[in-house]
Design a protein that fits this description.
The protein has helices at residues 7-19, 42-49, 52-56, 70-76, 89-92, 138-149, 164-172, 185-191, 216-221, 223-242, 244-255, 262-269, 277-283, 289-303, and strands at residues 30-35, 59-64, 81-85, 99-108, 112-117, 130-133, 158-161, 178-182, 195-200, 209-215, 272-274. The chain is α/β, with parallel strands linked by helices and 325 residues long. The protein folds into two domains: 30-109 and 207-322, D-Maltodextrin-Binding Protein, domain 2 (3-Layer(aba) Sandwich); 112-203, 3-Layer(aba) Sandwich (D-Maltodextrin-Binding Protein, domain 2), CATH 3.40.190.10. The protein has a six-stranded mixed beta sheet with strand order 2-1-3-10-4-11, with helices on both faces. The chain has a five-stranded mixed beta sheet with strand order 7-6-8-5-9, with helices on both faces. Helix 7 runs parallel beside helix 8, helix 10 packs across helix 11 (244-255) and helix 11 (244-255) packs across helix 12. The longest helix is centred in the C-terminal third of the chain and has 20 residues, at 223-242. The radius of gyration is 24 Å and the shape is globular.
Length: 325
């Protein structure tokens, strides 16, 4: 029996017993994802607040980043992932900075557009007019698409380079003839005495799509975590479908910024469509919308001299393997 053993033996046995006890679980590594304030990202924040990310076993930190250095932060390793639009990707990828979109959040069906003076009733009537938009942005991309559809080019307009909010404000102030922007400036612009909505993204379905982007080295090293984030997003979308009012309240508070008011959040939400599992599977299917939009973006920005990799293809910046159940 133990009490009859020599004292030194007892000590050894006790120490051995302690050493065999399990230690504390290692801290879960954080996956940092940068984002600008936008209604389209709401269900991922909902997934966080409802515990779907935690239940999947992934620890995500959302990092608010409102300006273009988001890609700089991604390249520098300050964040692992980024919420952005698919059209921005061809401008940023380079031989030493490989990235891929793994899923779609939403597409714009009225959330982006052009406000113009009331005497401008067609895209062709923008000829010779001052049009404000941010160069290199989704607004630039949308305008380029619409100009091409109408047999025009940027040389046919007077381009004024401004951030979307500044462009909207300049139009409301009567300093430009038209502005390519998004909410809340579309509403403000069309509500101005001289303004109206010339066109919005409901006329270009599948063109402006928000996606979740990661560096390829992150996808290789932490692919299981990325897959869990995608799964949690889809759970978030399903919860929003079942409980829209509660979800909008939670998402408005979590996304914050100019969308912190649930009423404004819900109003802005009418301008986009969330991608559930089936929509993502279809969008990222071989030859699907992701590849068409991605290739159009590559070709568009290449003509603007903004693509750094010759022969870049849509398949180089898309990775559908993480959309799985």
């Amino acid at each position: 029996m133990l009490r009859k053993l020599p004292a030194y033996v007892v000590i050894v046995v006790l120490i051995g017993t302690v050493l065999l006890l399990p230690g504390p679980a290692p801290a879960q590594k954080v996956l940092k994802i940068g984002y600008p304030v936008w209604v389209g990202y709401g269900p991922l924040f909902l997934a966080d607040k409802k515990g779907f990310l935690r239940n999947e076993g992934v620890n995500v930190q959302f990092v608010n980043m409102e300006v273009n250095p988001r890609y700089v932060a991604l390249a520098a390793g300050q964040i692992e992932g980024l919420m952005t639009t698919i059209d921005t990707m061809p401008q940023r990828v380079r031989p030493d900075f490989q990235i891929a979109a793994v899923m779609a959040f939403d597409d714009s069906k009225g959330g982006d557009g052009i406000v113009a003076n009331k005497d401008i009733t067609t895209i062709k009537e923008l000829n010779g007019k001052k049009v404000a938009y941010e160069e290199g942005s989704v607004s630039h991309f949308l305008l380029g698409y619409l100009l091409k559809q109408n047999g025009m080019a940027f040389k046919d307009i007077v381009s004024v380079n401004m951030a979307p909010g500044d462009a909207g404000a300049a139009f409301v102030a009567g300093k430009v003839d038209a502005a390519v922007t998004w909410e809340p400036w579309l509403t403000k612009g069309k509500s101005a005495p001289h303004g109206h909505l010339l066109v919005d993204s409901s006329a270009t379905p599948g063109l402006i799509v928000d996606v979740l982007v990661f560096r390829n080295d992150v996808l290789r090293a932490r692919g299981d975590e990325v897959r869990k984030v995608v799964a949690a997003w889809h759970k978030g979308v399903e919860y929003w479908k079942a409980y829209p009012d509660e979800s909008n309240q939670i998402m408005a508070d979590a996304v914050g910024g100019w969308l912190k008011d649930p009423k404004i959040f819900a109003e802005t939400l009418t301008g986009i469509r969330y991608y559930d599992y089936d929509a993502n599977k279809s969008f990222f299917a071989s030859g699907g919308g992701a590849y068409k939009t991605g290739q159009f973006a590559i070709d568009f920005w290449a003509k603007q001299g903004k693509v750094r990799i010759k022969g870049l293809k849509a398949s180089d910046i898309l990775n559908p393997s993480f959309i799985a159940r």
